Amino acid sequence: MHDTTALVDSPARIGGPIKIGRPLRVLAWLSFLAEVIIIGTGGAVRLTGSGLGCSEWPLCTPESLVPTPEQGIHGIIEFGNRTMTGLVGIIAIAVLLLALHAIGGRRSVVAALWFALGGIAAGIVCFVIAYLLGLPGFPFFSLGLLLVTIAGGIHSLWITPARRDLTSLAWIILIGVVAQAFVGGITVLTGLNPSIVGFHYASSLLLVCVAAAFLVRMRESDAVRERVVPLWFAMLSHLTGLALAVTIFFGVLTTGSGPHSGDVNVIRDGFDATFLAHVHSWPGYILAGLVAVLTIAAWVLRLEPRRWLLVLVLAILVQVGVGVWQARDGLPEILVGIHMVLAALSAAAYTVCVLRQKRPLP
Questions:
Q1: Same domain? 48 vs 151
Q2: Is 126 exposed, middle or buried (0-12, 13-18, 19+ CB in 10 A)?
Q3: Minimal CA–CA distance to 216: which of 9, 339, 32, 69?
Q4: Which tens digit of pLDDT belongs to each residue from 277-336?
Q5: Out of 26, 31, 60, 75, which residue is the most buried by the measure of CB atoms under 10 Å away?
Q6: DSSP secondary structure letters along 241-269
Q7: H or E segment at 227?
Q8: Do both 234 and 217 map to the same domain?
Q9: Quick one: 237 and 206 in the same domain?
Q10: C-alpha torsion 91→198→209→178, nearest 10
């Protein structure tokens, strides 16, 4: 008689349905909300001119981890965003470990923890080498940690064949958070270079989409998925995604050219902000038209993603309204911040719409 204890202990090996417990569901939603909130706090840093509120990284000053009274409100705002990054990371780790436990059992969790220890050790080695060479140590610490985290994700997917969709999404979020910490430090050390700041925002927006994708796939089985919309509808949806990406790209360039560079002494990227605002609006209006066509077609044909398309329509309408309002009122900080958060929510809603175009086979 064969011993089946190991099979029962490891859901990944039996290939059966994965039970997603309430703690994982709650933390997955908290992860999504945290990814959205950190875009708002990061926007607050830039829009209040607090980008260099903490002059050092990871310390706030050469002598202090936390802001000093001399740094005033700008130091508090910048340090608050850094604290939020830590919270996002903790939630991402919790989601990953719970997902690994539900999918691969104890073996997958232990492997991930060993890679975590290895990442810290690699980071320390990189820190010491950089220090001996007279270079800033912590960026190299983050880089070492990031590389080992990526290796841990690859190893985890190799030893946990079941539900690789959930496993990969959870790892991407954690890797993204570590990478964002690294990029955030480079942003400070380079004096808020507009290109790096823009990349920092775009990366945060992508993590919001990944967190939204995790929420969708978490509620579905791992069966083979089939398309439930016509081919032309799927192709038009991907064209809509391209329009959304172009709109966000020019929005990032416009913000980088406007008055909100993160610090009064930071030089912008040199583009004409007024002209870019018009260029930003062109793909935005195309996006609105494409989403309107998709929504009408989905409701007429009673296609699966029709309700989420209504959510996307609402997000884009509010986004267009806020965009026009802020352009006419000289880009007030609060409206620019709302515009940034709405862009992330629009991208998340679009992600859900695309994923709803397929469903698992019975």
A1: yes
A2: buried
A3: 32
A4: 778 788 888 999 999 999 999 999 999 889 999 999 999 999 888 888 877 777 677 888
A5: 31
A6: HHHHHHHHHHHHHHHHHSS-SSSTT----
A7: strand 225-227
A8: no
A9: no
A10: -30
* The total number of structural domains that make up the chain: 2
The DSSP H or E segment spanning 226 is strand 225-227
Q: What distance in Å separates the CA atoms of residue 88 and residue 34, rounded to the nearest whole number?
A: 6
349 and 361 share one domain: yes
294, part of any domain: yes
Q: What is the pLDDT of residues 68-122, one digit of tens each?
A: 777 778 788 888 888 888 899 999 999 999 999 988 888 999 999 999 999 999 9
Q: DSSP letters of 316-334?
A: HHHHHHHHHHHHHTT--HH
The domain containing residue 53 runs over which residues?
A: 20-222
Highest mean pLDDT of the ranges 42-51, 59-68, 159-168, 340-349? 340-349
In 4-63, where does DSSP find H-type helix?
A: 5-9, 11-14, 22-47
Same domain flag for 164 and 196:
yes
> Token pair of 341, please?
């958060």
213 and 245 fall within a common domain: no
Q: Are residues 241 and 164 in the same domain?
A: no
Asked whether residue 217 is domain-assigned, the answer is yes
Choose one of 174, 204, 222: the last residue of a domain.
222
